[in-house]
Amino acid sequence: MFLGLYNYWIVVVLMMIGFYIIIAHGNLVKKIVGLNIFQTSVFIFYISVSNIDGGTAPILAEGFNQYSNPLPHVLILTAIVVGIATTALGLALAMRIKEAYGSIEEEEIQQRVNREC
Amino acid sequence: MDSVIEFSSALCLLIGSFLCLSGGVGILRFPDFYTRMHAVGVTDTLGAAMILIGLMLLRPENLVLFKLIMILLMTLFINPTASHALARAALHSGLLPLLHRKDKNIGAES
Amino acid sequence: MVLLGFLVCIAIAIVRLKDLFAVVMLSGIYGLLSASFFVTLDAVDVAFTEAAVGAGIATLLMLVTVTMTGRYEHSAHHNSIWALAVVLVTGVLLIYGTLDMPYFGSVDAPAQLHVAPRYINNSMQEIGVPNIVTSVLASYRGYDTLGEVVVIFTAGVGVLALLSAVHRPEKDDGIVSVNVSMHEKYLILRVVTKILIPFILLFALYVQFHGDYGPGGGFQAGVIFAAAIILYSMLFGMSTARRVISQPLIQLLSAIGVLVYGSVGVVSILNGGNFLDYNLLSDDPVAGQHLGILLVELGIGCTVTSVMVIIFFNFAGRTEDHMRNERKSA
Q1: Which domains does chain A have, with CATH numbers?
Q2: How far apart are CA A109 and CA A27, in angstroms?
Q3: Does the pLDDT at position B26 exceed 60?
Q4: Which of A14, A42, B44 is CA-nearest to residue C3?
Q5: Quick check: is C184 in a domain?
Q6: Based on the structure, what is the number of domains in chain B?
């Protein structure tokens, strides 16, 4: 059973590592990197679901009649591009937070906001 | 004739993989950033070129052969340039090359 | 399996490192390794996009951000044992959830049986394009792709709203003197870049129009185009790059991409059919599909290129202003 499902378990491990980075580290840029790791593990999951033993890439060609499932490929293509868009926005926000609050560590920002209030 | 070409293609692929592997060993064993850069820059370029030549000898169709030649040309251009850029960036930010090995015996004698 | 093991090692290293520069480089390697993993799983289009976007543009943008926000991470003062406990519990629950799944690669999994064979079997007659992923992306599920292009456009608008500063136009002498003094310093890089940029642009055009027959399409081509422009602006200075590609032009191009996509749909409505129904764009339905896919991919390529360039110019412009202010105050 391990041989049949090891892909999914490694995906869960990667997902949990990304999750841990997001909730346990205070630096905003590191959180965004953790989010990226999380996203990529979800992509690996979908592409593993779409793989067929003995199939080939979903481009019609002579001599092949077993193709991998193209629908998750389309989904993940969209997801990758949307992921980079949100990462770029997140990084822009981090830069602005640094300019406005002087630091991108969660705790220091929290202290500064508490002092100002 | 065919088996000679197949044999030489296999030989090229093996040499290419060995070169890439030795570049990796070089990163771990060399003492300084610049020497590591030198190790990887040289061996990775030749390793990639050998692997591509090995693939070209397998006689693929015309379009794939043309693409492989283009990739080879680009790799020969880009790899050394990237190594140069990295080394220049390191020099610019103040990392000095290690010019002589620190001698352990001198400290023990005096 | 070896690739997945490497991915886990890199992820653990990213957790443990405090040097953000190394973390960004490792995440670039992570993107490249997952792209090669996708190739071994026969997902060539996805691998192309992940290599271009995840290993290229994401690493670049994160590097520019780290330049501005500081290189080292401060260590956390709170106890992270609760986070570890939550993560472990969630992980165990998820693994328990995967125990019911069909084995990896099985031919009769439910995911492969119901919807996919219809697309694989009918794609050639209805659309006539060998790359099934392109035909599904641009024609069968074209509405989703329209939403995606608008999301990219919105991200560009968001970055503009957050980061665009007013740039005082440099005097022309300033640019010439900067270029001359920098020329010796970066001579090798500049010469090689000048030789390579036409080939990069040509490759981007090839990927754009060859997306019907092999892996490729609008997204990958847009990212490669943007990479060529970003390479030029990195080596020749932001002021020179802004003279070559002015900000209003790029903003206009990003909007034009979305509008081209939308207008293809509107033309279909005007011809009496549904939104984004390409069969009505020409007398022969298959030719109509080809024309529709071509125009739509062009729109996608335009928008992706211009948004990536907008994002990079704004990031780098902000960093430049920051460095200039620091130099003035120091």
Answers
A1: 2-116 (1.10.287.3510)
A2: 10
A3: yes
A4: A14
A5: yes
A6: 1
Query: Which of C2, C132, C230 is most worth mutating to test chain A (most A CB atoms within 10 A of its CB)?
Result: C132
Name the residue facing A55 among C15, C42, C64 (closest C-beta): C42
> Which residues in C lie closer than 8 A to residue B79 (C-beta atoms)?
none
Question: How many alpha carbons lie under 13 Å from residue A51 in its C-beta half-sphere?
Answer: 24
Please tell me the distance in Å from B80's CA to the nearest CA on chain C: 10
Backbone angles phi, psi at C102, to 5 degrees: -65, 155
Same domain, residue pair C39 and C160: no
Asked whether residue C224 is domain-assigned, the answer is yes
Quick one: C54 and C198 in the same domain? no
Cβ of C77 within 8 Å of Cβ of A107? The answer is yes
Chain A partners within 8 Å of C74 (Cβ): 26-27, 105, 107-108
Structural domain that includes position C213: 130-330
ipTM of the complex: 0.92
pLDDT digits (tens, 9 = 90+) for C147-201: 999 999 999 999 988 887 665 555 444 555 555 666 677 888 888 988 899 999 9
Note every long-range contact of C91-100, with CB atoms under 8 Å and residues 24 or more positions apart, other chains counting. C91/A12, C91/A13, C91/A15, C91/A16, C94/A12, C94/A15, C94/A16, C95/A9, C95/A12, C98/A5, C98/A8, C98/A9, C98/A12, C99/A1, C99/A5
Least trusted range by pLDDT, from B80-89, C36-45, C70-79, C218-227: C70-79
Give me the number of domains chain C comprises: 2
Q: Is residue C200 part of a domain?
A: yes
